[in-house]
Specification:
With 89 residues, this protein is mainly alpha-helical. It has one domain: Arc Repressor Mutant, subunit A, CATH 1.10.10. 52% of the residues lie in helices and 7% in strands. It contains 4 helices and 2 strands, in the order H-H-H-H-E-E. Strands 1-2 form a two-stranded antiparallel ribbon. Helix 1 crosses helix 3 and helix 1 packs across helix 4. The chain is globular, with a radius of gyration of 14 Å. The two termini are 25 Å apart. About 16% of the residues have low confidence. This is HTH araC/xylS-type domain-containing protein. GO terms for molecular function: DNA-binding transcription factor activity; sequence-specific DNA binding. Keywords: DNA-binding, Transcription, Transcription regulation. Pfam families: HTH_18.
Amino acid sequence: MGTSILEEIRRARTDQIARMLVETALPVSQIADSLGFEDVQHFARYFRAGKLMSPLAYRRKYATRVDSGVAQNGDSFSQSGVVAQDPFA
């Protein structure tokens, strides 16, 4: 059996949250608000159900802050100061 449309929507939304956590330095509360979540605790539970870790733990695992404008691997980063390790590959 395939996945339902609701499961696909949830997966896509969780992936969008994950990208924002990795690719921006926005606070979790601002990401939650921008995606229509009125309660940060609900946002965190929603994300944890899909990725099996909290939003902050996910950010710590997959995003690296750098100060020099170039990551250790030579990749440049955006103005947010975050370099993605591409967990979506």
